[in-house]
Amino acid sequence: MAKVQVLDSAGNKVKEISVPGGVLDSPLKEHLLYESVVNYRANQRSGTAATKTRAMVSGGGRKPWKQKGTGRARAGSTRSPIWRKGGVTFGPSPRNYAYSMPKKAKRNALKSALSMKLSEKQLFILDAIEFKEPKTKEGVKFLKGLKLDSALVVDNHANKNMFLSLRNIPKVKAIDHTNLNVYDVLNFKSLVFSQKAFESLMEKLK
User: Fold this and answer.
1) Beta bridge partners of 43
2) What is the Cα–Cα distance from 2 to 23, expressed in whole angstroms?
């Protein structure tokens, strides 16, 4: 079992904890990181783009002119796609872009991302993440203590003061450990865990 350092809010070493093998020492699998990011972004798409076909555009119920004898091209509706104010041919319609990755691939991608952050010395585990009150000022003070400018902070959703203190700070995001994903891990320079959240995640990934 590997060991990682646990720090206090000032960045000083407090103790070491053991980590199950095969989690933070996983090999870097770039193809899985790529697939996870594409999957995450696809699942975020709203899929609401839409255009009207000739059947949906109002009007056009009457034949503009008779079929023969006028010298003009045949026309059955003023809402034909080749007419001004007509419908759109092969336009987008609402659809769901979401899809699922295999569970094992998803887990291995997250392990790979965590291992990469550890190798870059950008993975921090704190004994506790505590804020006296829900103030942005407290969040800025917390980040200055760890000398971080871009960070994903991971703890339990019950830590409301943390979420409220960090939500207005640029380049910083706070999430619950159950919602941790590869996209967010890669999108921020540093990754900060509370010890409790980190141990819960390790139990899930081992």
Assistant:
1) none
2) 9
**pLDDT tens-place string over residues 164-187:** 999 999 999 999 999 999 999 999
* Secondary structure, 3-state, 174-192: EEEHHHCCHHHHHHCCEEE
Strands 13-19, 123-126: pairing is unpaired
Question: 3-state class of 111 per DSSP?
Answer: helix
User: In which domain, by residue range, is 51 found?
Assistant: 46-96
Q: How many domains does the chain have?
A: 2
Residue pointed to by tokens 């070491």: 16
Residues 55, 149 within the same domain: no
Same domain, 137 and 71: no
**What's 154's domain CATH number?**
3.40.1370.10
The one-letter code for the residue type at 184 is D
Q: What is the pLDDT of residues 9-33, one digit of tens each?
A: 888 888 888 888 888 888 999 999 9
